[in-house]
Amino acid sequence: MIIREGKSVFKGVAIGSIFVYKKAEKTVNKETVDNIDAELERFETAKAKALEQLKSLYEKALRDVGEEEAMIFDVHQMLLDDLDYNDSIRGIIENDHMNAEYAVFMTCEQFAAMFLSMDDDYMRGRAADIKDISERVISILNGTQVSPEAMPEPVIIVAEDLAPSETVQFEKDKLLALVTQKGSANSHTAILARTMNIPSLVTTDIEIEQEYHGRTAVVDGFAGLIYIDPDEITLAKLQEKKGRADEQRALLQEMKGKETVTRSGKHVHLYSNIGGLQDVDAVLDNDSEGIGLFRSEFLYLGRDSYPTEEEQFEAYKNVVSRMNGKKVIIRTLDIGADKQADYFDIPQEENPALGFRAIRICLTREEVFKTQLRALYRASAFGTLSIMFPMIISVKEVLRIKEIVEEVKLELDRSDIPYGNVELGIMIETPAAAVISDLLAPHVDFFSIGSNDLSQYTLAIDRQNQSLDTFFDPHHEAILRLIQMTIENAHKNGAWCGICGELGADMELTAKFIQMGIDELSVSPGYTLELRKRIREC
Amino acid sequence: MKTFDYTIQDELGIHARPAGMLAKAAAGVKSTVTIDNGAKKADAKRLMAIMSMGVKKGHIVTVTVEGEDEDTAVVAMEEFFKTNL
């Protein structure tokens, strides 16, 4: 068994035989030509043929994968028609008396180098497009253009790299997976793979050896691995994984785009919990309706100084913009207890879970808090942003937070910096907050119940201590009563109430929460569709 | 000569597709259309030249239209930017 690792661009499992795809060797001869007009004509004819091919590729892609992915072939036609590109090719033929193949090759090198030198990932990626169109013209010119070999059965394609024009030419129902040595998560190949729902790996450390051709392999898009000649145990394990993934995908297709409403017609907002920008793809892929908990502490961890306002602003703005108007609830810094960063310089504590953490740090070190609030308010101009505050135990804290928020808004007003309409909410994760939720609710727009901490504090059980597992009951009546009380008090005061802890994804409790009147459930992106299904059954 | 300033709204800036559409639109008028981002200038009919300017979201470009149909062309160009960029 041989195992190779790559970067997965689509989560899924594929089992089948390998098809090693090698591009025809493209050598371009440099020749001097005498009949300039004839050579120019050769180029024009080849170009016209290339444009015609791109047009039919566009139509094929439109049918197979949709408009967004087909667009690339429209762009290829435009690039091939570019004035500078054409001027350069004609110039080399006319002035240097070179053959058309060489003129296209030299022009391609020059323009590809120009894009590769740009300070922009997207534009650097366009160099591949220039190469793709140029190779097409060259292969038409020297008669080496070949259509991809027919594949008798569905296969796992292993290749050095695949141009979009190559991926789209494969018969869609003959593709199990794509594994490439090069490429990136943003390449067209990766995008096509995601659209086609086929597990695929890029930047894989695999050899493009003919000897792999026809051998059995498994691509595990969850782990980013390809197993060649898998042993029986591995094969069985991955077959099971594939079964689960296929089931999940069927569910996904079925639940995507559906409303999250109960049988009696109550709409529940189904949001996601995330740790940063890297999770937004999963949020969108799973058709989540918003972000119910963005743990901002990831910005503070794994570094040795406080993140600047600018750094934070960029991070929040990116997430908010990518969510395109959908709600994004960002929780302010929740550091302390199990999440530590040295530069915070928090003294050793006897009992950190009951210690200097979260809002207690923010209200003590107001500058740190204000920097985050300024970044959040600035980002709110780019979408729908809400802020929630962790570890609240008293009305006094909420009032102080709101004073600081007003100061921040005033500062922004003075500098003419725009911000949006920001909902403010608090986490209900201490028994104290739940018990006085009637007093807290008039001061906030929403509550979000942090069930993990609420359970641990209510039951006085440390969740990290496994020896206490037999005493721990996540469905303990005390927790459920506190949740019910919190929802009722929110509603009495015109606030809404959600759950963003693990209990939110506990399908055994979904019906109960709906009965209690819960407005929002925020869970890991992976649970979204399953939970939507469950809610629709309630 | 007519000019207008425009702040790019598109998330990806002037990327391949709108640049291609711009080249087509510019080819459809008699006037010369020039895009200037303060650092570089390019003829709007030339797709790769426009792309290589690397204009991103939030950047301000000055569009200059010059020629016999500049009065109508500048309106068409402004409309194009608002719709596509």
CATH topology of the largest domain in chain A: TIM Barrel
Determine the most extensive contact between two protein chains: A-B, 21 and 21 residues
Give Rg of chain A in angstroms: 29 Å
Largest sheet of chain A: 8 strands, mixed
Quaternary class: heterodimer
Low-confidence stretches of chain A: none
Q: Which word captures the global form of chain B?
A: globular
Mean pLDDT over the full residue set of chain A: 89
Strand order of the largest sheet of chain A: 1-8-7-3-4-5-6-2
Name the beta content range of chain B. 15-25%
Using DSSP, what is the number of strands of chain A? 16
CATH topology of chain B: Histidine-containing Protein, Chain: A
In order across it, which strands form the biggest sheet of chain B?
A: 1-4-2-3
Name given to the CATH architecture of the largest domain in chain A: Alpha-Beta Barrel
Can you walk me through this structure?
The complex is a heterodimer of chains A (538) and B (85). Helices cover 45% and strands 15% of the residues of chain A. Chain A has 3 domains: 26-141, PtsI, HPr-binding domain (Enzyme I, Chain A, domain 2); 155-251, Glucose Oxidase, domain 1 (3-Layer(bba) Sandwich); 256-537, Phosphoenolpyruvate-binding domains (TIM Barrel), CATH 3.20.20.60. Chain A has 19 helices and 16 strands. The model of chain A has no long low-confidence stretch (mean pLDDT 89). Chain A is elongated, with a radius of gyration of 29 Å. In chain A, helix 1 (36-64) runs antiparallel to helix 2 (67-80). Chain A has helices at residues 36-64, 67-80, 83-96, 100-116, 121-141, 164-169, 188-195, 232-255, 280-285, 309-322, 359-364, 366-379, 395-414, 431-435, 437-440, 451-459, 477-492, 510-516, 528-537, and strands spanning 2-5, 7-10, 13-21, 155-159, 175-180, 200-202, 216-220, 225-228, 269-274, 290-295, 327-331, 384-389, 423-428, 446-449, 496-499, 520-523. Chain A is α/β, with parallel strands linked by helices. Chain A starts with a strand and ends with a helix. With 85 residues, chain B is α+β, with helices and mostly antiparallel strands. Chain B has a single domain, classed as Histidine-containing Protein, Chain: A (2-Layer Sandwich). Chain B has 3 helices and 4 strands. Chain B has helices spanning 16-27, 47-51, 70-84, and strands at 2-7, 32-36, 41-43, 60-66. In chain B, helix 1 runs antiparallel to helix 3 (70-84). The radius of gyration of chain B is 11 Å and the shape is globular. The model of chain B has no long low-confidence stretch (mean pLDDT 88). The A-B interface holds A 71, 74-75, 78-79, 81-85, 111, 114-115, 118-120, 122-123, 126, 129, 321 and B 11-13, 15-17, 19-21, 23-24, 43, 45-49, 51-52, 54, 56.
